[in-house]
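Friendly challenge for the regulars: who can give me the structure tokens for this chain first? No prize, just bragging rights.
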Amino acid sequence: MRNISGTQSTQEPGETADASRQALERELLEEMTGWSPRDREGAFKTWHRHSLSLVHLNVLTALEAEGPLAMKRLAEAMDVSDASATGIVDRMEKRGLVERRHDTEDRRVVRVYPTPAGEQVFSDMAAHRRGMLSKVLAELKEEEMEALLIGMRAIHAARRRVMGSICGPPSAPPTEPTAG
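First reply, four minutes later:
Bragging rights claimed.
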């Protein structure tokens, strides 16, 4: 096991720089992805407070990520039949989490929108998470928080670079022709 104290790490005897980096990466992944039963319990309590199933969270996540979706597109995103998607949306609509509206350009198309209550689900989850993280951060020394902040900023910058290379640069908005 790697000996890490403070912000310095030591390489074990005979360990190559590449192997040392791989070992460090494995440890970081373990630290960053560990989700204890207590962590899950807190998240599940938030979901249950809203009477949500994982399917409902999946719908709300798709709507948050992509905006209002046509029923057919929502069924595709969830990998369910159109009839199953209709039943799911019916139940969510009864709970006040989503609403259906006819498309303004093509009245045959029905789009699903999150309601304010549906949007509140993720706000509540984020507030719960922030509260728990605040308690954890209160246990750290100031220099530990400073080091963590540097690391978190480095992770976010690296993530933006990776996502940029996977997704490509955002497309430029179409330009309007100029009168000549």
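The longest strand covers residues 98-102. The CA atoms of residues 164 and 170 lie 8 Å apart. Your move, everyone else.
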